[in-house]
Design goal:
Order of helices and strands of chain B: HHHHHH
Largest interface: A-B, 69 and 53 residues
Largest sheet of chain B: none
Helix content of chain B: over 70%
Mean pLDDT of chain B: 75
Shape of chain B: flat
Strand content of chain A: under 5%
Radius of gyration of chain A: 17 Å
Low-confidence stretches of chain B: 203-210
Oligomer: heterodimer
CATH architecture of the largest domain in chain A: Orthogonal Bundle
Structural class of chain A: mainly alpha
Radius of gyration of chain B: 29 Å
CATH superfamily of the largest domain in chain A: Winged helix-like DNA-binding domain superfamily/Winged helix DNA-binding domain
Number of strands of chain A: 0
Strand content of chain B: under 5%
Shape of chain A: globular
Number of domains of chain B: 2
Number of helices of chain B: 6
Chain lengths: ~170, ~210
């Protein structure tokens, strides 16, 4: 892979997988550290690119690299990251009571719950919310689909019950 | 509250990065990479050129003093030019096509295991260097003693030797206590804690299987 091919693939991937990057950053870093983690993810992806073989699925490769980078990112940020809730995002007053407002609040609450999970659980939950199957999640993490299923079942139950309690007040 | 409502909120527009944001991030990142690559190549070329010039200068000096035969000088200069050109080529190639890390693209759990092995290897290398330096110090002391005994070293030369021995000790001690060691140990601990998080998967609740 020469320099130009590498840059082209990189640009294509960033454009294609930008929601993935955005969600990973939001789930693993608080807003103040978001740029730092985004840079780390981009750098990991850039460095990993020469190892990509086109016969494998690009999405699995990108998920593996970004989630691995996000999990190990908090070497120096561990204290700041773990147990830190994301800052609530401002919602325009005009949207209060609207459907968007409700979704926004729900999303913020969901990220809060995700931030409370251990890093590996966070990653699994993110992949599940991105609607990946157990088999694909297992391939990304190196786990069997049965193990992923059991773990996600517990996580979803826990998150849904937590959110039910809180969301009724919204 | 249902899974569907969560899925709807998750896939909503507020959970996406806009294409403008993504384009600006990508172009800023690529510009930075290009600029660093250029700087590294320039730096390498400068260092290589400086060394080549010094070699050529030394050849000229040796020739002018009559210590080197002209025929040998030509061979020597050609060999140097070849070596330095090859070196520049190999390193600039290496910079432009950095090899991917061993953890790239492998399943996350395996990547963590590989990263731990790498850090442990790094730590072992540092330990070997530190132990080597520490062990070399008594040898240096012994050789100084022998040189003093045989008269090959005068007491006036002694301070320089002592300073060198102290520097060797200092480097060894710094290696043993430095951030390099602390950093690697912390990294390994952190990666192991992530792996322990995976190990919890080893005890699936049979009654709660999906």
């Amino acid at each position: 892979m020469n320099d130009q091919e590498r840059e082209d693939t990189f640009e294509r991937w960033i454009s294609e997988y930008r929601p993935l990057l955005h969600r990973t950053v939001r789930a693993f870093a608080r807003p103040a550290d978001a740029d730092d983690l985004m840079q780390e993810l981009l750098l990991s992806l850039w460095k990993a690119l020469p190892a990509y073989r086109s016969e494998s699925r690009a999405s699995t490769f990108v998920y593996r690299v970004t989630h691995n980078a996000a999990l190990t990112w908090h070497r120096g940020h561990r204290r700041r990251m773990i147990e830190t809730l994301p800052e609530p995002e401002a919602v325009p007053e005009s949207l209060e009571g609207s459907c968007l407002h409700r979704d926004e609040r729900m999303l913020n609450l969901l990220y809060e719950r995700i931030h409370e999970l251990s890093p590996v659980d966070r990653s699994l939950m993110l992949l599940s919310l991105d609607e990946l199957g157990y088999q694909e999640i297992g391939a990304i993490h190196g786990l069997s689909s049965n193990v992923v299923g059991v773990r996600l079942h517990r996580l979803r139950k826990q998150i849904l019950s937590d959110m039910k309690e809180n969301f009724d007040d919204l | 509250m249902t899974s569907e409502q969560l899925a709807s909120a998750w896939s909503g527009s507020s959970n996406r990065m806009t294409s403008t944001e993504s384009a600006s991030i990508t172009s800023a990142f690529l510009n930075e990479i290009r600029s660093r690559r250029r700087k590294s190549s320039l730096g390498l070329t400068f260092v290589a050129a400086a060394f080549a010039a010094l070699t050529l200068l030394s050849i000229v000096v040796l020739l002018s003093q009559g210590d080197l035969h002209f025929k040998h000088a030509i061979t020597f200069a050609l060999m140097n030019v070849l070596i330095w050109t090859g070196w520049i080529f190999a390193l600039t190639k290496h910079i432009s096509q950095n090899r991917a890390p061993v953890t790239a693209g492998v399943p996350v759990r395996e990547a963590l295991q590989r990263a731990i092995s790498q850090h442990q290897l790094h730590l072992n290398h540092l330990r070997i260097i530190a132990i080597g330096l520490l062990l070399s110090t008594p040898l240096v002391a012994l050789s100084i003693y022998q040189m003093l005994e045989t008269g090959r070293l005068t007491p006036e030369d002694l301070p320089l030797r002592i300073v060198l021995a102290i520097v060797a000790y200092g480097v060894a001690f710094a290696c043993l206590r430095s951030d390099y060691f602390g950093h690697s140990i912390l990294e390994i601990e952190h990666l192991k804690s992530l792996l322990r998080d995976y190990d919890r998967f080893g005890e699936p609740d049979q009654d709660n299987r999906c």
